[in-house]
Structures are given as structure tokens and as C-alpha cells.
Amino acid sequence: MNQPVTLIGLGPMGQAMVNSLLDAGHPVTVWNRTASRADAVVARGAARAETPADAVRASDLVLLSLTDYAAMYDILGPVEDLGGKVVVNLSSDSPVVTREAAKWVEQRGARFLTGGVMVPAPMVGTEASYVYCSGPKDVFDAHEKTLGIIGKPHHMGADPGLAQLFYQANLDVFLTSLSAFLHGAALLGSAGVPAKDFAPWAAEVFQLVVHFLPESAEQVDNDDHPGHLSTATMMGATADHIVAASGEAGIDLDLPRAIKAHYDRAIAAGKGGDNWTRLIDGIRNPS
Ligand code: NDP
After folding, report:
1. pLDDT, tens digit (0-9, with 9 covering 90-100), for 157-188
2. Domains of the chain
């Protein structure tokens, strides 16, 4: 028989995970604060637990898909017996909060893994889905196959905060990129250009960024920022022009000003002749 799984938290992500696990033939027990949110997955074959304690009792593997880690305490706090369970928290939060949660769960007799699912709900369970995990490697190894139904699991290290950091670092890039796209669309929109005409050009820029990444990472890691092709001063002037153009268009100035501040710091530190990768210093130590 496939391993029974309990899944607590039935937002879009939790529901998608339950569906993938059911499709793969796992018995799944679910609990959700708002009980009606379980109706669809129960209709597809999941068992409805009446209380969190019942849900935890039903399976040795307990997955949490919640808005944040505070919700975990609300739900598992009143559950008296976590002994022998493996709790995998697939919710977003900060690394410090995650490390404290790992200790809290372990003090209550369970093992703990952190997970960060890196795709939206419709892609859960597809080939494109992947999950950053961290925590004890033996726990990861024991549950890799079952977690693999949700998305390909990658063990990033023993520190329970590390999966969260990978998750947040990637979403840092993702959210910043999305806002950058919208900002560019607003800038062109001020001249009547529809966003659909901008999208293919923005895609070209994203490709260029992808092209730059390996070399840029090497420069950051080696703390070596040769400015023979581009300099912080040259790019900083462009950052200035984006602020000016945004002002002329009457659109948001916060985003371009934040970027310009990175260049200003590098130039003020006397590093204007270095490549733009030198900005890492001021990002690491903004004061
Ligand atoms: P939602 O915020 O829509 O739902 C999360 C669940 O948390 C709901 O079932 C909700 O219960 C429950 N919940 C929240 N607070 C409490 C509480 N105090 N007590 C009990 N239950 C609580 O989240 P998603 O399903 O969209 O996402 C789940 C996690 O996955 C999040 O951490 C999110 O950042 C992450 N994620 C989301 C992605 C997405 O595209 N949506 C993509 C990748 C990761 P109720 O139904 O009663 O409100």
C-alpha cells in the first residue's frame, strides 16, 4: 500500500497537493480550518478529519500547506501527541521563524522538514514542479519519493532555514522581475503603448539576464568586478535616466529610486569604475 499522508491546509496549493497524492494512489486525510474547503478533495476520495488531532493520528507523514508558520502553532499547538510523526511544513515564512518551528516540532517528539514549493497550484504534480527541502537528510531520504509526487524534491542542507532562504531568494528575483515588468509597461503605457507590445521585448531582456548570470555569479563569488565592458558609473547614469523618465511619465518612482540607490552607493564608495556586480557590497551592507 502507498504511504498514507495527512495534509493540513487546503488553499489552492494544499488542494493541488491532495489531488496529486490521490492520483498517485496515496490514502490522504485532510483537515482545514474552513471545513467546506475540503469538500472537493473529499469528493475525490480524501478522508475528512474532524480535528487536527484526528488528522495527525491518521498518518505518520503530516504535510502542512498554510499561509505562514503562525498557522502551524494555531493548528498543532492543541494536538497533544506528535510523537513519531514526520511534519513537513510547505508554508512560506522567514528562516528564523522556520528554525524555531523545527525545534518546537522536534521538542514534541516529531521530526521536521522544511519545504518550499516553487510552482503555482496548477503546476503542482507536473514535471515542472520542484520543492526545496531542508532538515535531516535521513528524513528527506525516507520521504523523497512521496514528496516527489508534489514536485521534484531537492535537499538543500540540514539547516531547516535553508529551504526557506532558497525559496525567498528565488521569489526575491521573481517578484522584483514582475514589478520591473509592470513598471516598464507603465512607462511605455504613458505613451500609449500597450503592455502586449512590450512583453516580447521584455522577454529579450530576461534572456539577456539569464545569459549574464553565470559570469556575474563568478564575479560576486570571487569579489572581482572588472569594468572593461560596463561600469557602475555608466549603468548608474542609466538608472538616473529611468528615474527621470518615470518622473516625466508621472508613474511610481520608488522602484527606480531603489535601483538608483544601489548604484549611488557603489559610486560613493569609489567603485564607480567596477562592473555593476560591485553593487553587491552595498546590498550586503547598506549602511
Ligand atoms: P492560502 O493562504 O490560500 O491558504 C493557506 C491555508 O492556510 C488555508 O487552508 C487557510 O485556512 C490556512 N490558514 C491560514 N491561517 C490559518 C490559521 N491561523 N489557522 C488555521 N488555518 C490557517 O495559501 P496557498 O494555498 O495559496 O499557499 C499555501 C502556502 O504555499 C503559502 O505559504 C504560500 O506562500 C505557498 N505557495 C503558494 C503558491 C501559490 O501560487 N499560491 C506557490 C508556491 C508556494 P482557511 O481555508 O480556513 O482560510
Report:
1. 999 999 999 999 999 999 999 999 999 999 99
2. 5-158 (3.40.50.720), 190-284 (1.10.1040.10)
**CA 82 to ligand 1 centroid distance, Å:** 22
Contacts of 281 (CB under 8 A, 6+ apart): 265, 266, 269, 271
Centre of ligand 1 from the C-alpha of residue 273, in Å: 46
Q: Best of 7, 36, 66 to mutate for ligand 1, by most ligand atoms within 8 A of CB? A: 66
CB of 99 within 6 A of ligand 1: the answer is no
Measured between alpha carbons, how far is residue 270 from residues 26, 88, 231, 239, 263 in Å? Answer: 60, 47, 12, 18, 11
Q: How far is the CA of 31 from the centre of ligand 1 (A)?
A: 13
